[in-house]
Write the structure tokens for this entry.
Amino acid sequence: MKVGYLWQIEDAELHTSSTSVLHISAVISGLKKRAHQVRFVTTPDKVLSYSDDWDTWNAVPLGFFNTRLYKLIRSGIGFIQGKLRLPYFHFFDSMRYGHVVKTACEGYDVLFERYWLLNYGGLIAAKRLGIPLILEINGDLFKEYEMMGIELSAWQWRVVRFINRQLFKRVDHVVTVSEPLRLQMMKMWDLPEDKVTAIDNGAHVERFAADYDISDLQAKYRLNGEPTAVFVGTFRLWHGLDLVIEAFKKASEKNDDFRLLLIGDGPQYDEIQKLVGEYGLADKVVFTGKVKHEEVAPIMKLAQVALVNPRLSPASAAQSPLKLFEYMAGGKAVIAPDVPNIQKIMTHGEHGHLIPPNSADDLAEAMVTLLSDQASTKKMGDAGQKKALVEFSWDKTVERIEAIMVDLISKNKNK
């Protein structure tokens, strides 16, 4: 089948190792691996373009959307909107994106779009092309806005809710990355059960399960078999790195040999480094800084225990963290918050420890328990790896997405 993969965004920073880019790349690669043709329509370098191979990008002629008349209409309405403080409907951007998708995906069978609050260009294109549209939802964006401190006026929220009600009413299917998020979306937008499917994220399980010669990494990061916990991710406030450092300080007081390995960087990088210094942990905490995603798997081999974000937010409670699947595939005993979206994936005592979220004390206790008992920790890691290899590969994720596409295409042809 011919699939249009849509990401309507101002600037698709495809050179990064962000969770969004990793996810999109894995799904597109997985569909191609299954012999489907996939055309990716997004904005590398802020230019609306499409690509069939992620390397060569083709800009689509914008037609009316590049004329003086269009620009005059847009600027005029924008001026009035600003003066009267009217809410933003994202109308012009969605119309233009819809035009690009329709042009790029003529003759395609189905569209698959990564959802965002005010984007409906994919829906416009799907209706004009007469093909199904699947929306993929990776989190509760309403709660994420609140978490990031993005404030909208009451009028703006009314517009957002109106547009989303119309969007969810008209799309053909919705895919969420967790069962809690599925139930949340069904309730929020009054969606029937058969219109929403929960499909977990996955991992490049073979990469994380592979054996690596880590002798050079041991020398580079000064880790030579000490009991080590690892955290992989972006250093952001809501990920709870401050809790991780506080918990590790408590754990290291129980055993001076414990080490903490932090893989990644982000807005809080300097702040976390400063906190480590203040706690007197500079000789026990190793920072790798920014590394490429393909370099993460061998570095993770330096640790025995892996940490999922300990700080729980209303948004993260329904997410499907990629790092959890990668940790399990890498054979790590995992310490994670004891919440429904995590409980569905790992079992306490079998794959690691589930602990109350937002608690440095409970995290410290779990670190001490797992880092002090290497035999039990390895047994848990092996059990998690076995489960990940069978259940949580990107191949499994894409297989389930493919089944929905095939069903929708069949129904569309039989209308």
Notes: The chain has two domains: 2-202+394-413, 205-391. Residues 205-391 form a domain with the Rossmann fold fold (CATH 3.40.50.2000).
